[in-house]
Amino acid sequence: MRARIIFGKSWLVLLTMLLVSAGWGACSSDDDEDDFPPEVTGPRMAKYQIMVVFDPYQLGDSGYADKVMEGIQFFSNPLYDDSAQVDVSFIADFDRYSMEEAFCKWATDSINPAYGNVYERRLLILTEHQQLRMLNEMADSLRPTDEVLALKVNDEDLDNTEASQKLGNRLHGANISAAYSIRRYCRFMDYIAGETEAKGGQMNKNIVHMLRLYDDSLHVYRDSIVEALTEMRGETLRISKMAMLAPDDELPYSSIFYGNVVSAATTLSAKLLSFAALVNCPFCIIDLGSCNNTMDFAQMGNQEAQVFPLMIDGQAHDINGRFYVDRDFKILVSSWVSRWLQAPMGSMPRMECHGGWDGYCTDNLYGPIN
Hints:
Elements: E1 3-6, H1 12-21, E2 48-53, H2 64-73, E3 86-91, H3 96-107, E4 121-126, H4 131-138, E5 146-151, H5 155-160, H6 163-167, E6 171-176, H7 179-198, E7 207-214, H8 225-233, E8 238-245, H9 258-278, E9 283-287, H10 294-300, E10 308-312, E11 323-327, H11 329-342, E12 351-354, E13 361-363
Helix pairs in contact: 2-11, 7-8, 9-10
């Protein structure tokens, strides 16, 4: 088994170092095939291929994307009993055009490069909702034995995509709802406001600030965040939303926009924290992917401000008042793919959803909020 990566040459050294440090074996790009000859470890040829598509610069987010990669890495580990039967590949390119070009090449070429045989079955994993548009254009090129798993989607997303009609029971979705932690966050708001009022202070708990990558017209909340807020607060709730990108903007992690997005996220995060403290409504939800890390710097510069940001797909840091929602896509992906390898073609569930009820969604909020 070989883990293969399809990406631009500028990524080659960086991704190779990352994968080696994570315990991976030999990696190669399509351009350097001769430099990394395949190692034949036995008479068996890999029957299955798993291809994971990441947005440009999405890897390294210390959250969602890295968890997906950790989950799929399990199947390339020699300790995995059937690792010789499975090839794991990635598309992690540096801009949208290169990503789509690599995806088109994969969709039309089902040959195992190590042995020259045709894979019996292939699984395509899409990590972002926007990638469904790319799938719509290439669905006709997929083989009858190819299946697709789209992450962070819901039933409506699958029904509305053109590829659904072409792929039928070979198109699947999976998501982890953050609603459990959002409800806990609302009870946390009540707790903090109550503690403040008990000391003679005042706090507005009916305004929640929200900083996101996309506005609603392109990428609505697909994990019930807004719905859970409305459920807990009703008509008294006001959600103040800020979006980093407009509908027609380049992918947020692309080389064209990445530096600007990180810089803008840092600036907006600092302004959001300052404004929240100024108007005495210190609750905000941040969902910026890899740019979530910029909130650490903004928060460190606002230690005196009593603001309580909740990070979606964040990770714990030793920063006072920094809360996170951890959705375990590592376990979701590894579990789903394990079952797919054993299941007849087309028999996996159309949609699979997890959350706090089954341990896939956790947080580090505190207080009497359960």
